[in-house]
Amino acid sequence: MNRLLAVLPFWLLLTVAAGAAEINPLFQSQDPLQITLTGPFRTIDRERDKDQEYEGTVSYTTADGQVTTLDTSYEVRGNYRLRKDVCRFSQLWLDLRRGQLPGTLFAGQNRLKLVVQCRPRDRYADLVVKEHLAYRMFLQLSDTGFDARLVNVTYDYSDDEGESRTHLGVIIEHKDTVAQRAGGENVDLNRISLTDLEPRQATLVGLFMMMIGNTDFSLAAGPADDECCHNAKLLEIEGRYVPIPYDFDASGFVDASYAADPNPSFGLRSNRQRLFRGYCIHNDYVSDALPVFREEKEAILSLIRQSGLSSPREIRSSVGYIEDFYEIINDPGEIEDEILDDCRG
User: What are the extents of the domains in the chain?
Assistant: First the structure.
């Protein structure tokens, strides 16, 4: 259990709700999962039509050697990574059939997001590993976040006989499952007032985004005609809005070669440069949040060291990037200059 739960009553409430929720077997292990997806992937990657559903199956082998096959529909998702000049392969939703799920590894998880390896080369596999790490690191800091599991996916093409590929991916739970576990309700508003945000989690998210070098998010507003927020979802718990972040491929930690440049208004040279984008009205909560990061430092660095990144050099680079953040939060002057003075609003 993370340390914030031990000192803040709000988080105690979330922990009790989480303990009462049904256990979902898919995320009980963090061992990479081997799955096979069958579907018209040639057509999916050509059309990239968000309004189309494509039929297929997902298969996995149980511990006793039995193959379980479930029906699924695929939907294309994403925005920037949906562009063909950015990613060769489309990001996907998996829509499983509820009636087939009881007693399977996917029980309680009928709609899942799949992060698909963008291109075939090994360096793109490292990007998948690091994006998965970002989800795991956030869960070291807060129990209210998206659970994620690394998967090794074989894609069998039903529209191109004999064609297949095997790449890394990340399965991410649906926001409804997070809400159920946290004892909250999903929020469908497009925009909220900053005063309605739960300040402890909002501060934690802002600092986490700074740690991984991510400026591509908002905790208070979503795109036009869409729900709040940008690369974050909101849960309503006890009358306050609790943000949970997702989609970290634009962060400096992931360091994707295809990622768009930071917003020019931020004055950043690259995505590797950090900027705190938390809110000034929450500055009083920074002193509560920073000890959580300090106490979880070794656990976070251990996740990176044991992640299976492709080379010792890649591991050293990733560890070093996170350690740079800790140099900031262990220096009172840097906390003042880089966090408290750089807040938004």
Answer: 3-17+184-340, 30-176
